[in-house]
């Protein structure tokens, strides 16, 4: 029997409990149970689903729910209690709700850890019909529709430190919360940003059945092309390559994968290449039942490979009963080149550049493959665009030895050529966005990345770039929203998203939240010097001087030549107040930076 996989992550936890349930059961056991079931089915569960929550388990009259976004968790809690308060007659079921943000451990379908324990302790502190949240949740939620009141610090069972709590109740509100038009700049309303959860899929790396390890890039390339094409379908949530490829070479139950990636469907397959012939098998699995929704085998000439990929993509869309717009159909059929050798080099570049633990040598080989693809087909848009983006890795890491301004000019020229060849190609606009972001043109960067995401809404790397643009331009709430979306699509890259999320929270003055996020980041990326630097700044504001100095000592052991001034300058913040806030936090910790 397969051992349970244990996963840790940061999550928002909602715990709800029925007020006076024991009394209700004593008065009318059958009626109380019927009312509770009706409440869950008609009122509670639909609202949780609307805000993207996952009901982890029922605990008698209580419910434990996990959310990827703390804003969604609080909006959900408020919506549940608002609906009950607005009912014509007093509802037979009244809830108390607690919400916390913290580290959790996932084992099978269940979750454990401090994040859950504190949420459970907060719930009894809420008024009947109200919501109680921790201070770290209030930091993240502050400025949104519902206003929470300071409840002071309280001691709770089995938690060795007092918890600062904040409370909300419908009766306490002076009036309705701000509308979308009245919300603070950069804030996100529940209705304007939430994408309804519909069909979702993870495409696993196709098995290389060629008997030649050198052909691994070919089977990976087919899988990645299908991911790219499916990501263009607006009615389908597609898990990013980084996360689905984490299962490469592993024998994992598809139901476990579906649970870990929170998707309803998984595509798996194999590729056998022999000379000028290729055989591709693919099957689409419903992870809830383990049943096949669709399966097929293709025996074709190598020159038909593009047509086969299109067929697989369209078969998946049809099996999931998704209606494509004419523009989406045309986008899926757009491959950028008909030159097999050029596309082969593009696949090789992509495999090398996205290798775990990218090294200067792998980068050099990847750039060489990109330039070869361009030589073979000078009108290959995607090759120009990805090669441009890869040059920015050289800009930051100085792998080629060329001056940064020379590398930047090289990258920008490739991006300009890509968008000249096809102004509507998502990857070309992504390349323009990256170039504009690192040259300080934030308006152009935002415009270009929006064009990318309009055609490819679940493109995780594009969402990450969008968050970087927002972070540099001072739109910190927007950056957090983009990172939450990216984390849903690409949980395998959470460590990187947490870095930017922590930065945004610190720059907003959410110091407790920032410290929590950076601590989680260091669990996932143990050797991060920049993560420790920003953690030390957050701890300085919180007065946790000893822990801040310990983080800085560890940082210097990892990177003795670390310079926070150089790192902050490299970020190119538009607002001088942002790097100044980081430096002030370090100064509060007494750190000699």
CATH superfamily of the largest domain: Nucleotide cyclase, GGDEF domain
Number of E strands: 14
Average residue-wise pLDDT: 86
Q: Helical amount among residues, as a percent range? A: 40-55%
CATH architecture of the largest domain: 2-Layer Sandwich
Main beta sheet: 8 strands, mixed
Low-confidence stretches: 174-196
Q: Beta-strand percentage?
A: 15-25%
Count of the domains: 4
CATH topology of the largest domain, by name, is Alpha-Beta Plaits
Number of helices: 25
First-residue to last-residue Cα separation: 53 Å
Principal-axes geometry comes out as: globular
Computed Rg: 25 Å
* CATH level-1 class of the largest domain: Alpha Beta
| Protein structure class | alpha/beta
Summarize the structure.
With 593 residues, the protein is of the alpha/beta class. It has 25 helices and 14 strands.
Structure write-up:
The chain has 593 residues and is an alpha/beta fold. It has 4 domains: 6-189, 2-Layer Sandwich (Alpha-Beta Plaits); 197-335, Rossmann fold; 336-456, Tetratricopeptide repeat domain (Serine Threonine Protein Phosphatase 5, Tetratricopeptide repeat); 482-588, Serine Threonine Protein Phosphatase 5, Tetratricopeptide repeat. It is built from 25 helices and 14 strands. Strands 1, 2, 3, 4, 5, 6, 7 and 8 form an 8-stranded mixed β-sheet that branches. Strands 9, 10, 11, 12, 13 and 14 form a 6-stranded mixed β-sheet that branches. β2 and β3 form a beta hairpin. The longest helix is centred in the N-terminal third of the chain and has 22 residues, at 29-50.
């Amino acid at each position: 029997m397969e051992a349970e996989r244990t996963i840790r992550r940061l999550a928002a936890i909602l715990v709800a409990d029925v007020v006076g349930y024991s009394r209700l059961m004593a008065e009318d056991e059958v009626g109380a149970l019927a009312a509770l079931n009706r409440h869950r089915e008609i009122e509670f569960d639909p609202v949780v689903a609307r805000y993207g929550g996952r009901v982890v388990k029922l605990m008698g009259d209580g419910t434990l729910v996990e959310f990827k976004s703390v804003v969604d968790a609080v909006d959900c809690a408020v919506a549940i209690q608002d609906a009950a308060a607005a009912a014509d007659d007093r509802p037979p079921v009244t809830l108390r709700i607690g919400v916390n943000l913290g580290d959790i451990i996932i084992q099978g379908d269940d979750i454990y850890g401090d994040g859950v324990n504190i949420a459970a302790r907060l719930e009894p502190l809420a008024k009947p019909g109200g919501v109680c949240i921790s201070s770290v949740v209030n930091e993240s939620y502050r400025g949104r529709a519902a206003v929470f009141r300071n409840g002071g610090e309280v001691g709770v069972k089995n938690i060795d430190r007092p918890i600062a709590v904040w409370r909300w109740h419908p009766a306490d509100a002076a009036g309705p919360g701000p509308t979308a038009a009245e919300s603070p700049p950069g804030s996100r309303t529940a209705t304007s940003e939430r994408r309804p959860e519909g069909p979702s899929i993870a495409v696993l790396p196709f098995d290389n059945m060629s008997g030649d390890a050198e052909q691994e890039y070919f089977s990976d390339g087919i899988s990645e092309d299908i991911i790219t094409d499916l990501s263009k379908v607006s009615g389908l949530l597609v898990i990013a390559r980084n996360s689905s490829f984490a299962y490469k070479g592993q024998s994992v139950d598809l139901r476990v994968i579906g649970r870990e990636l929170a998707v309803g469907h998984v595509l798996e397959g194999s590729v056998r290449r022999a000379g000028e012939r290729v055989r591709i098998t693919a099957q689409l699995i419903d992870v809830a039942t383990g049943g096949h929704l669709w399966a097929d085998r293709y025996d074709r000439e190598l020159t038909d490979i593009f047509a086969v990929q299109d067929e697989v993509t369209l078969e998946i869309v049809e099996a999931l009963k998704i209606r494509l717009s004419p523009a989406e159909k045309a986008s899926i059929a757009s491959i950028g080149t008909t030159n097999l050798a050029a596309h082969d080099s593009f696949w090789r570049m992509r495999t090398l550049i996205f290798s775990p633990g990218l090294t200067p040598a792998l980068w050099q080989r990847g750039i060489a493959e990109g330039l070869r693809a361009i030589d073979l087909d000078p009108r290959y848009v995607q090759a120009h665009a990805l090669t441009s983006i890869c040059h920015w890795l050289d800009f930051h890491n100085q792998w080629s030895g060329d001056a940064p301004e020379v590398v930047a000019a090289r990258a920008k020229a490739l991006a300009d050529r890509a968008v000249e060849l096809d102004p509507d190609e998502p990857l070309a606009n992504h390349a323009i966005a990256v170039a504009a972001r690192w040259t300080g043109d934030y308006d152009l960067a935002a415009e270009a990345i929006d064009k990318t995401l309009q055609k490819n809404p679940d493109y995780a790397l594009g969402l990450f770039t969008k968050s970087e643009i927002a972070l540099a331009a001072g739109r910190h709430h927007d950056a957090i929203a983009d990172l939450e979306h990216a984390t849903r699509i690409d949980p395998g890259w959470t460590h990187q998203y947490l870095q930017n999320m922590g930065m945004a929270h610190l720059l907003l003055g959410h110091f407790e939240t920032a410290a929590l996020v950076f601590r989680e980041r260091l669990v996932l990326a143990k050797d991060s010097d920049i993560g420790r630097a920003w953690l030390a700044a957050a701890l300085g504001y919180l007065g946790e001087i000893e822990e801040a100095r310990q983080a800085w000592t560890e940082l210097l052991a990892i990177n003795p030549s670390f310079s926070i001034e150089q790192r902050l300058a490299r970020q190119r913040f538009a607002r001088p107040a942002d790097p100044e806030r980081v430096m002030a936090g370090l100064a509060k910790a007494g750190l000699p930076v």
